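[Solved] Which block belongs to which protein?

Original post:
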Amino acid sequence: MKNFISLTIIGLLFAACGGGDDSGSPEAVNAAPTVPALKAPIDNKLCVDNTVSFQWDLSTDSNKDAITYQIQVAKENTFAQIVKSSEVTTNDTSIALEKNTAYYWRVKATDNKGLASSYSSTFKLYTSGDAVVNHLPFSPELIQPAVNSLLNTATASLKWKATDVDSNDVLTYDVLTYDVYFGKTNPPTAKISENTSATSLDITLESTTQYFWKIVVKDNKGGETIGQIWKFKTN
């Protein structure tokens, strides 16, 4: 009996002193790199050379992980169809593009564990053509209401913006006007405003209805760009 008690006490002492191996520190939680900030070409740039040099600020990684960058180039601002995509470990790359074409580009950073940042903001550029005297406007950009938003009002203000590289040149200055298509069908066919220079339009809404709308941007030299279709619902 006495031997049993002694062995029990010794066992308890070993259990109390042994524990687990707590000499190691907890593994750090992996964090995504910061979002790259685009530098060049600047937004709305007219690029004379169709081999374009893209640059952005380096991302940082709190875990000191190695970073790669993915650049995407598309012909529409939704990036539904990517025309050029490249992965690099530096913060610049050159890409050959078609002449006389509008492009949109963005970059994201990914660490060596596969965790990626969000995409950067989107910049626009236009590649110059041979003896081109006019460039088409860029696709219109949505301001409000947000796509798939739910509105609780009987009226709404449609707002958008658009740019044209020729607007920065005093010799080829373009004045932009807009046609607004709005309705309950996709695509919308009713033109509710034509050749307006305003970038907003107030409308009356019905309850529990889904609406679709789009903007056609026109310059004063006959150039025309059809925007994507946006949609929202009412409560």
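(Second protein starts here: sequence line, then its structure tokens.)
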Amino acid sequence: MINYNKLRDAIKNIVDESPGSISVTFCDLDEGEKFSINGNKKSPSASMIKLLIMLTIFKKVELGEINLNEKIKLEDENKVDGSGVLKELSCEHLFSIRELLTLMIIISDNFATNILIDKVGMDDVNKLGRELKLLETSLERKMMDVGAKEKGHDNYTSSEDVASILKMIYEKSFLSEEMSSLAIDILLRQQERDRLQRYLPEDLKIASKSGDLDNLENDGGIFFTEAKNYILVVLVSGAESNVAAKEIIGKISLEIYKNIGE
């Protein structure tokens, strides 16, 4: 039997001993137990905002407003630096919305993300966030939009909001079973595994999405383990370095994993 009060105290100790601002939300998907540390604290989302963009796309697919097989041509106006591979390709290439969505999640492609923001509309992404009561989550600019950021516009979320999104996907409570299963399949193919999975077995199944900025690292995922399934979201900002932030996330994740397996 897991002592969740003891587990929370152990995580709180890690948070208190670590530099920077840290938010943690944990949810046992089998027993319904949950705890948060600074869970409702608003923090720059970095690429974790792409989870809400994905949710918006899938909902529009269900409503018949978007076809995942529709092809879109790469346009120079959406080409940006940062993570991804599309920026290296000719703008004559055609990609389906399904392919762009997959690239947005598994390698956090910023070019693909900006194309999809244009497709669904920033207002609709934020409208869905409000409908789902994601109180600290907002999309205020495209990826790598330095000008908008200099004007005070940024993208935000909280560990509670990210956990809520992941729980909706896992429980298939918002999207259809087909779209929820597709979302999990894409998240399971995540290529960035050096945060939550940093100190865990390489073959552990985690459906996850991460994000990073200078001295900021975020990661959240659905863990499928032999003992139980659970959600863990950790947001770290103001760390000494990005490597240090990743190590904090890895340490918290390892503590949870060890306790779950006992």
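Accepted answer:
You had them paired correctly. Confirming on the second one: Residues 242-261 form the longest helix (20 residues).
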